[in-house]
Write a structure and sequence with these properties.
Structural class: alpha/beta
Distance between the termini: 32 Å
Strand content: 15-25%
CATH topology of the largest domain: FAD/NAD(P)-binding domain
Number of strands: 18
Oligomer: single chain
CATH superfamily of the largest domain: FAD/NAD(P)-binding domain
Number of domains: 2
Bound molecules: NADP nicotinamide-adenine-dinucleotide phosphate
Radius of gyration: 23 Å
CATH class of the largest domain: Alpha Beta
Helix content: 25-40%
Strand order of the largest sheet: 3-2-1-4-18-17-16
CATH architecture of the largest domain: 3-Layer(bba) Sandwich
Shape: globular
Length: 444
């Protein structure tokens, strides 16, 4: 009987566990996560107002509650204080790394580190109650924000910036973030793409949602749309629908809404400008479309004043000590999911999800990705199964000074979040710090 560790309990980890139990009638799977809470980016990345996507937790839960699957939270693999990869490898017949892309891409321009300039992932972590996220005073004194990038994360943070208390209160957003967003004096968000509307990465459903926010007007410059030479009829369905939505918005008359989202295109960030020790504006260079979907600089510049800048230019994988890493793609090199060490397949070590294929695709993309990896793993199983591994790795984890949080601990956190919500007159409200989470998890 094969014993497999899956590292990470986000969608890719859960789908990997699911494929394993579906394709092997005997396998036992431990799903390890460094947090005491499961679900990865479904809990800590999907925006609180996207309740339908969040409800996916229900199907991921079914996997983690399967009789041959065990959730072990609070187990860090690699890094300071973490269980070394080599040690972990000796505890299981196979290990599948589903650790996602834990950091953000950089712009690499002057001023990026100024106070008031944050990665979108830092902002998302804060409103999602990630226990490592700090309240950085994101909205203090902010009237105008610039969001750099036009992907779905940019849409999420733009929408969250303008959402009112009435819309956020029914969600599980932590109370401090709700209070801060509700009291914010922000009136304008510029969401800015370096290429044209036809090259934007957001999906039409997410784009349309921006146009339906109460008390908020969305504007698009006709000039940006006219600049794009693409014939909408010749575009693939997604970009074509995006361009249609943007054209309809550009044609709408102005309203008296109190908040405004300005969608801008063909502006490439070149510098963040300082004002009084913090960010005061973003300097953009105007770009022009080339014939192949890219852009070239025009040598003309535009400064957009902003007291908050959210850089939403994509996630990036981080290296895990003891495993190979390709810095160019931010992924672990692999062949059909099997980790490659110096180009040579390493049976017993596998990858799935964003650390395998890079930070793209929707949650469902992880299903076929996980299945490919599990098929590869099971092809190696006859040889892997011959290794001697401990009957129960938890004893070895404890001996290494790690106290895993079991599924019951997570259920106790869920109860504590429901109780907190009831005390605040809301539904479930997330616990936002390590002490609260671990305190709740240890309740008998
Ligand atoms: P993304 O889709 O890759 O978008 C990144 C954006 O940043 C693009 O507009 C890109 O422009 C821009 N960019 C990159 N480097 C830049 C630079 N140096 N200067 C200016 N702009 C730059 O990434 P994401 O928004 O982080 O999303 C990650 C994945 O999660 C995506 O697959 C997304 O669909 C998914 N997601 C889905 C949802 C949902 O379904 N509701 C919500 C959140 C995230 P270029 O195109 O020109 O490179």
């Amino acid at each position: 009987m094969l014993r497999v560790a899956v590292i990470g309990s986000g969608p890719s980890g859960c789908y990997t566990a699911q494929s394993l139990i579906q394709l092997d009638p005997e396998v036992r799977v431990d799903v390890l996560d460094r947090l005491p809470c499961p679900y990865g980016l479904v809990r800590y990345g999907v925006a609180p107002d996207h309740e339908k996507i969040k409800s996916l937790q229900g199907s991921l839960r079914t996997v983690l509650e399967h009789e041959r699957v065990r959730f072990l939270g609070g187990v860090r693999v690699g890094g300071p204080g973490g269980l070394p990869v080599q040690h972990l490898r000796g505890l299981y017949h196979a290990v599948v790394y589903c650790v996602g892309a834990a950091t953000d891409r950089r712009l690499g321009i002057p001023g990026e580190e100024l106070p008031g300039s944050w990665s979108a992932t830092e902002f998302v972590s804060w409103y999602s109650a990630h226990p490592d996220a700090a309240d950085a005073g994101f909205l203090r004194g902010v009237r105008t924000a610039v969001v750099i990038g036009v992907g779905n994360v940019a849409v999420d943070v733009t929408r969250m910036l303008v959402r009112g208390a009435a819309e956020l209160r029914p969600t599980d957003i932590p109370q401090a973030a709700l209070d801060t967003l509700a009291a914010s004096g922000l009136t304008e968000v510029h969401m800015v793409g370096r290429r044209g509307p036809a090259q934007a990465r957001f999906t039409t459903k997410e784009l349309r949602e921006l146009g339906a926010l109460p008390g908020t007007e969305v504007t698009v410059d006709e000039a940006d749309l006219a600049l794009d030479p693409a014939d909408p009829g010749a575009l693939p369905a997604g970009p074509r629908r995006n361009v249609e939505v943007l054209r309809a918005w550009a044609a709408r008359p102005a309203t008296t809404a109190t908040r405004r989202i300005r969608l801008r295109f063909f502006l490439r960030p070149v510098e963040l400008l300082e004002d009084g020790g913090r960010v005061g504006a973003v300097r953009f260079e105007r770009t022009a479309p080339d014939a192949s979907g890219g852009v070239t600089g025009t040598g003309r510049y535009e400064d957009v004043p902003a007291q908050l800048v959210l850089r939403s230019v994509g996630y990036r994988g981080v290296p895990l000590e003891g495993l190979p890493f390709d810095p160019a793609s931010g992924t672990i090199p692999h062949q059909e999911g099997r980790v490659l060490r110096d180009g040579v397949p390493s049976p017993g070590e596998y990858v799935a999800g964003w650390i395998k294929r890079g930070p793209t695709g929707v949650i469902g993309t992880n299903r076929p990705c996980a299945k490919e990896t599990v098929t590869t793993l099971l092809a190696d199983a006859p040889a892997l199964g011959r290794a001697k591994v401990p009957e129960d790795p938890v004893a070895a984890l404890r001996a290494a000074g790690i106290q895993p949080v079991p599924w019951d601990g997570w259920l106790a956190i869920e109860r504590a979040e429901a109780e907190l919500g009831a005390r605040l007159g809301r539904s479930v409200v997330k616990l936002a710090d390590w002490d609260a989470l671990l305190g709740a998890a240890r309740v008998p």
